[in-house]
Write a structure and sequence with these properties.
- The chain is an alpha+beta fold.
- It folds into two domains: 82 residues, Phosphorylase Kinase, domain 1, CATH 3.30.200; 250 residues, Aminoglycoside 3'-phosphotransferase, Chain: A, domain 2, CATH 3.90.1200.10.
- It has eleven helices and ten strands.
- It has a five-stranded antiparallel beta sheet with strand order 1-2-3-5-4. It has a three-stranded antiparallel beta sheet with strand order 6-8-9.
- A hairpin with a 2-residue loop joins β2 and β3.
- α7 runs antiparallel to α8 and α9 packs antiparallel against α10.
- The longest helix has 26 residues.
């Protein structure tokens, strides 16, 4: 390197500090990201991401993820190179069904590829949602009953009455490596050279494996669905994605179809649809608790409507691959 480099971006989030570095050598531009945790807990996540790439570097094909170049174990700094022609997925791209189909296909391909290795078993934690275990659920119920929020105390009573609906959701403790934070902005996409606003949706990559762990493969799909459904009741372009509820339902149907069309599994896909939808409800209920506990002023009618939808999913007896289609018909009043 000839020393010709500059910091192009700097951003500091609650968990990490990240530098985007532009460098030029051998006549070519290169973009590097340097990421360091701001707290001790965040440092463990940085190491987690490094270990994922270290263990699975030979398994992950180039089109699935980006390569980690260097890790400073003492200072907990992770360095990886961003492909020059790739950019982060921006909100406007969510108005294209190509993204949702490509995201579902990519997740299915990754889960088909990654097998749990012995080294992964010794390092990564096993994950299981607290609400799916009897001890975890009852502990959470008792905790919520003693909080100042009436909304959460009332929810505790309902969760206790619904405990069997949680326990009946199957969970495979050691089925897959889970990304753990499958949100739209953890994808990057290839931009078409010299054509502004044009992208190759078939060339998505998944980044930020800080929260990866071992557990049930359906959780990542459920997490992705929940992140959109949690915003779907904010009308008039006021949600985080500037999409209407009908748009979100339609796009999630595309995501799920693409995911299950490519996912290799021994299980009946109708059963897996049911499972993913129920797990998305578990995720949304957990998010509701966290939001109300940390930001009591958020206890709005909109959030309560989303909570009721999640509970309705858990209590439903007929969840299948037509769920989102039925919801679209219902929302339109047909």
């Amino acid at each position: 390197m000839d020393g010709n480099f500059k910091v192009q971006e700097f951003f500091s989030l609650s968990r990490n500090t990240t530098f985007k570095i532009q460098a030029e050598f051998s006549g070519k531009k290169h973009y590097f990201f340097l990421k360091q945790g701001r707290k001790q807990e965040a440092n463990s996540f940085i190491k987690n991401e490094y270990m994922f790439h270290h263990i699975y570097s030979e398994d992950l094909q180039e089109e699935y993820a980006i390569e980690v170049l260097w890790f400073d174990s003492k200072k907990q700094i992770l360095v990886y190179e961003m492909p020059v022609d790739y950019v982060g997925v921006e909100l406007f791209l969510l108005r294209n069904d190509g993204f949702f189909g490509a995201a579902g296909k990519l997740l299915g391909n990754i889960q088909n590829t990654l097998k749990i290795k012995a080294q992964a078993r010794t390092y990564f934690k096993n994950f299981r949602p607290e609400l799916l275990s009897k001890n975890g659920l009852m502990k959470e119920v008792e905790r919520l009953k003693n909080l100042p929020s009436k909304a959460l105390r009332d929810l505790a009573v309902r969760l206790e009455a619904m405990q069997n609906d949680f326990f009946h959701i199957p969970w495979n403790n050691e089925e897959s490596i889970i990304h753990g934070d499958l949100k739209y902005n953890n994808f990057i996409i290839k931009a078409v050279s010299n054509v502004p606003g044009e992208f190759v949706f078939s060339s998505l990559k998944l980044t930020d494996w800080e929260f990866c762990c071992i557990g049930d493969s359906c959780w990542d799909a459920a997490f992705f669905i929940s992140s959109f459904l949690d915003q779907s009741y904010y009308y008039g372009g006021n949600n985080a994605f500037y999409l209407s509820r009908l748009e979100i339902l339609g796009y999630l149907d595309i995501f799920m179809e693409a995911y299950f069309n490519i996912r290799n599994t021994e299980y009946d896909k109708i059963i897996l649809w049911d499972k993913v939808l129920r797990l998305s409800a578990v995720c949304s209920i957990s998010n509701y608790i966290l939001s109300i506990e940390n930001y009591p002023q958020k206890d709005s009618k909109i959030m309560k409507r989303r909570l009721e939808e999640a509970i309705k999913i858990l209590l439903s007896k007929d969840l299948d691959s037509d769920y989102f289609k039925r919801m679209i018909v219902y929302e339109r009043g047909w």
